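Key result, reporting period 2: structure in, sequence out.
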């Protein structure tokens, strides 16, 4: 049975690049053919793409792993390996991506917004790429780069026109089942709704709006009581708030006191919610025992339902008119990193930066010519200067990716 999932883990792994090829021409009557090894193909990326047809993060609940295709290896006769296919992972609009430190990496708000979750490894260059006047027969090629790999945390904030806010058992689920085709669990006890439900309300004039049934709040929700923060975050992006107060007996709280507590919880959680358009309505009009001078409805008899939906339509249309129209999707890419040096407590120095890591990872360091090429690349990246500035001395251990060596300063 499917359900609503608003938090999930994702393990994203970019495809590995293909290795470059070491090859030399072998032709009749050609005693020493030149190098002709082709390049390896790049690994496929993993992209997260916002899709309005996806309602929750359910697809990641039991299988959080997504990866890109590997690139093909290079071949002789300058034949390049094929590039790996990118993987596009669909997520709901309103998905926030966080890293292991809980920092926000991307916010995919609108249809088509995308973010590069894991970059595929770069294909290695074949030996024909290293042909020069000094090196006429390069006997090495670059190795395949491993694709980026990491765990991410996905968090969904619902994108709804109207969010229903109220205490447990205030009649929210009954209301949304009355005005839409949503079928939330309805019962006469608190906390019937433990996950948000979405309902689509259609009017005869072709107007359409999405209503979110938010699980019941309790006093202190803004401070995290119960599952307060988990529920309240779904209110953040709603265009209009519908605060529902129970006109039957609720722990001795009259309707106005209920409204004050609920509004205070919203404003304590996010001060901007104080400016959000909202309506306050009394529910269970057919069984009312408390006085209320505002709008009242009964989801059982239908009392006041049409009037309420009409007022919500007006507020939603006004809110939509004020919101700038999205003309194109946004592409999020990680900020390129430079090269830096970190000194660890054990006295080792670690060079951080993908370019430096690639310089050694892609090279066959058992080959003298490949080693010279890697050293030249590190010189171009000014890694020796960065190590000297960090205080590295002769004989200190330096780590670059998985490669470890003893530091020797330039003479």
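The corresponding designed sequence is given below.
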């Amino acid at each position: 049975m499917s359900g609503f999932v608003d938090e999930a883990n994702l393990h994203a792994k970019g495809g590995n690049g293909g290795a470059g090829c070491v090859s030399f021409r072998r032709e009749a009557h050609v005693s020493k053919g030149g190098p002709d090894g082709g390049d390896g193909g790049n690994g496929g990326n993993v992209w997260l793409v916002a899709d309005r047809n996806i309602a929750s993060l359910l697809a990641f609940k039991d299988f959080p792993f997504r990866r890109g295709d590997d690139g093909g290896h290079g071949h002789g006769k300058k034949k390049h390996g094929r590039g790996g296919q990118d993987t596009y992972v669909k997520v709901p609009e309103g998905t926030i991506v966080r890293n292991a430190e809980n920092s926000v990496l991307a916010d995919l708000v609108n249809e088509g917004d995308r973010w590069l979750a894991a970059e595929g490894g770069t294909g290695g260059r074949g030996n024909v790429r290293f042909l020069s006047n000094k090196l006429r027969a390069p006997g090495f090629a670059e190795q395949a780069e491993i694709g980026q790999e990491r765990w991410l945390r996905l968090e969904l904030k619902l994108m709804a026109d109207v969010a229903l806010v109220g205490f447990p058992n205030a009649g929210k689920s009954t209301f949304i089942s009355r005005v839409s085709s949503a079928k939330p669990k309805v019962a006469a006890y608190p906390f019937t709704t433990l996950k948000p439900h979405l309902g689509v309300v259609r009017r005869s004039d072709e107007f359409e709006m999405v209503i979110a049934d938010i699980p019941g709040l309790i006093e202190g929700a803004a401070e995290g009581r119960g599952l307060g923060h988990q529920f309240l975050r779904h209110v953040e992006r709603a265009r209009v708030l519908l605060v529902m107060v129970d006109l039957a007996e609720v722990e001795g709280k009259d309707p106005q006191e209920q409204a004050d507590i609920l509004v205070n919880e919203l404003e304590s959680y996010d001060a901007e919610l104080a400016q959000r358009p909202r309506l306050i309505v009394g529910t269970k009009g057919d069984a009312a025992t408390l006085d209320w001078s505002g709008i009242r409805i009964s989801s059982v008899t239908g009392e006041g339902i049409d009037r309420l939906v009409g007022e919500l339509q007006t507020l939603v249309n006004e809110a939509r008119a004020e919101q700038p129209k999205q003309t194109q999707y946004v592409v999020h890419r990680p900020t390129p990193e430079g090269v830096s040096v970190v000194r660890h407590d054990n006295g080792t120095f670690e060079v951080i930066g993908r370019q430096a890591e690639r310089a050694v990872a892609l090279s066959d360091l058992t080959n003298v010519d490949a080693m010279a090429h890697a050293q030249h690349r590190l010189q171009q990246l000014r890694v020796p200067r960065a190590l000297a500035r960090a205080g590295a001395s002769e004989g200190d251990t330096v780590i670059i990716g998985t490669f470890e060596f003893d530091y020797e300063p330039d003479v």
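Residues 184-193, 220-229 have pLDDT under 50 and may be disordered. The helical segments are 172-179, 228-232, 255-269, 305-322, 354-361, 368-380, 383-389. This case is discussed further under Risks and Mitigation.
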